[in-house]
């Protein structure tokens, strides 16, 4: 049996990833997944994990594992659990490891695994990864004339199902995320004071300049022109594109 905290990722091991505070982004070869406080996820060996990025103040841990029954663990989706309970249980496991009592250590590990097993999320791992693909698709295509139906067709899902799963994962609908990406990029371009409002509207996915202006004011409380004027004199309005 093997269950040990690691500082670095080794593609030869399976891992349990725990997020105790804040959020982190795990970058795989083809996509990334954001994990939030209280989430636990299994990363299989040879998963082509490239990097783990954490926001300021975030806390997470990687535990390499190998034991009888690991196949069940590898099929876990995201687990949500109380961060403090996760951390205290892992501290107890580390304390027992230090006592050099193998049988007690194994019992504690399996009790811990069973505890978080009961809190499995109903969504599949495949679904979670699919939501990340959809988010990245939006990140790359928000400047195009995206519609919910178009995205649903692209990913072979019904619009309602796509929206439900996307909102469950990110706290907003897919089209709300499209709008957020467009407005953020519009702010960035407006702060440059190089492009006309009409040109910016087209660059962020709106064919109608006047609809863009109404949408921008609804989201920010200012017209694009007002925002550009403020950004010219106040650095706090100069945002970076996501």
TrEMBL record:
**Alphabetized Pfam families for the sequence:** HTH_18 (PF12833)
> What are the protein's UniProt keywords?
DNA-binding, Transcription, Transcription regulation
Q: In the UniProt record, does the keyword NAD occur?
A: no
Give the InterPro entries listed for this entry: Homeodomain-like_sf (IPR009057), HTH_AraC (IPR018060), HTH_AraC-typ_CS (IPR018062), Tscrpt_reg_AraC-type_HTH (IPR020449)
Domain HTH araC/xylS-type, first and last residues per copy: 132-230
Would the keyword Transcription regulation turn up in this protein's UniProt record?
yes
Molecular-function annotations in GO:
DNA-binding transcription factor activity; sequence-specific DNA binding
Origin superkingdom: Bacteria
The record ties this protein, via PANTHER family, to: ARAC-FAMILY TRANSCRIPTIONAL REGULATOR, HTH-TYPE TRANSCRIPTIONAL ACTIVATOR RHAS
Q: What is this protein called?
A: Helix-turn-helix transcriptional regulator
